[in-house]
């Protein structure tokens, strides 16, 4: 009990008294032996006043714990921020490397199937012109109902289907780019970017994906959406329906289109597709485009789920990983009122 009181008095003081001195008083040393035996010295009592801990002391000790906790939280937050910055830099590095490989391997080097840009053949040029004229199957469908302003070039339905499938998917990226909350980090024109993407696909989308990872520039004010951006955003559901329909028609056209043109059965068309991918640079590049779109679609949608109607956010979050379908779901469920 004595030791406990001593320890407590070393840490706290009662509001009514102070702790007593422990040594025996000096006058007691000069008393005789008999006096000591006759009348034991009166020992000074130890202060037994109940320990009272003031609110001030509690506050001090509590605040000390809080400071330690806060320091630990700050260290954790700093470490997490550094990890995010490192991940962002790694992703940017990988994207710029992918851009270099994409341009060099698919456009300039002779190692990929087909001819590089600097040695492109006349047959490839004619095929590109024909595919462009059959954009979204407009001319073939017009010719099929008797409207012949221009005769549609007759190409293999597999090549037409693959071309329009990629272009239809690219078409639906427009509202997604114009509603991207990181779009202002790209200082160029989104109108021009998307227009070039329609022709050269990931040649321009990959750099955008890298640039949007830059840190936000507080000195750069947010830009107003362009007229094209407003149209695409306001008409996002229509864009989704059109793009989705084109992708569906492209698949059906590749399998069943021009059945009277002696392009063979489904099995023969599949064999043509394998040969086409292994001999034509354009077709081979489309496979790369599809692979990149499979990565970029869920990435962009996941970063912009706040643009989706709250009641549909969970559905879009699951469907974003499904090629084409996830982008259609995003455009159909986009909260247009908040975006305009």
UniProtKB/TrEMBL annotation:
Domain of life: Eukaryota
Keyword Transmembrane helix in record: yes
Residue spans crossing the bilayer: 93-112, 124-142, 162-180, 192-211, 231-256, 276-295, 315-334
Keyword terms: Membrane, Transmembrane, Transmembrane helix
Signal peptide as annotated in the record: none
Protein name: Transmembrane protein
